[in-house]
Design brief:
Hypothetical protein af1432; 11 helices; 64% helix
Amino acid sequence: MTMTREEAEQLVRKEISNENLIKHMLAVEAAMRELARHFDEDPDEWGLAGLLHDLDYERTEDDPDKHGLLTLEMLEEEGKEIGEEKRQAIKAHAGQKEPQGKMEKSIYAVDPLTGLIVAGALVHPEGLEEMDAEFVKNRYEENSFARSADRGAIKSCEELGLSLEEFFAITLSGMRKINDRLEL
C-alpha cells in the first residue's frame, strides 16, 4: 500500500525523538515541495522523499554506512511502499548512490542547504521570515559558518540548472511556508 503523507509523519514521530531532527525533515520536505513546483513535478511525491529521508538517522548515527538503506528496510517492515523514484532519492541523499535525475539531485543538494538556512535564521535579526537569498549566500561563503553544511553538495544545484541564488530563494520560499512548524 502506498504511504500517505500523514502515515509518513506518524512514522517519523515514532522513530525520531529529537525535535530538531524532525524539524529538519519537515524543512527538507517543504524545500522539496517547492523545488517540485519549480520543475513542474509532483510536490506530494517530492515532499514525501524529503520527509522520510532521515527516518533512520537516530538508528544509524553510529553506523553511517547503513544510512538511507535502513530507512528502506524500515518502510518495508511497516508494509509501506513509496515508489522507486523516492527510494533512489533517499539512497542518493545518503551517499549510497550517485545522484541522478532531478529528484535525486535536488534532495542531495537541499538537505545540507536547509541546515545552513536554519543556522542563518538563528543569527538573523528577524529570523527566517526576513532572510533573503543574499543573506544565505553570504553565510554560504563563510566557511566557518555552519561548518557541517556540505558546500559541495549545495553547489551541485547547478547540475539542475539553478544558480546558487535561485536555489537559495526557492528553498527559503518552501521553508517559509511552514515556518509556523519550524519556529524560525
